[in-house]
Amino acid sequence: MSEPRVHAEPLATARLDLLPLRVEHAEEMAVVLADPALHTFIGGTPHSPRDLRARYERLVAGSPAPGVSWCNWVLRLRAQSCLVGTVQATVTATRGGDAEIAWVVGTPWQGRGFASEAARGLVSWLGRRSVRAVVAHIHPDHLASAAVATAAGLAPTEEEQDGETRWRLALPL
């Protein structure tokens, strides 16, 4: 396995600290992500703390594919010192530095702009790396995620994958 070329590092936005994912975040994040409604557009069900810990162990270990970096952060709301969600980027060097991003904010913290703030911070960070384009896949009925993607500078394309629209932002090199 080759060493990933991009590593998650601590980031800060106006209200959030984006902390590189650690296995120890699983218990608190299992509570944050416990609402089944979060799975309406992505499928599945909430993970138990044990299952989420196993998932985080795999994510923290990194991608087994050469040239692929898994960068994952939890979102800490600075004012309340609690976790409220996650953002992630899968950076693929073999495609010229594309990054596929995703985000989720727990139901109690939705509607306050945290996902948009975190996504903008993530896209800005990726722009300071050798990333050529940022993409996200969003269900066409998920208006909140479309608003987050728009706030982060992405625009919908005509491409679809598994029933989701591909959103894209080309970054200046």
TrEMBL record:
GO terms for cellular component: cytoplasm. The keyword Cell division does not apply. GO terms for molecular function: protein N-terminal-serine acetyltransferase activity; protein-N-terminal-alanine acetyltransferase activity. Its EC number is 2.3.-.-. Coiled coil: none annotated. Residues 15-154 form the N-acetyltransferase domain. Gene3D superfamilies: 3.40.630.30. It comes from the Bacteria. Keywords: Acyltransferase, Transferase. This is GNAT family N-acetyltransferase. It comes from Streptomyces sp. R28.
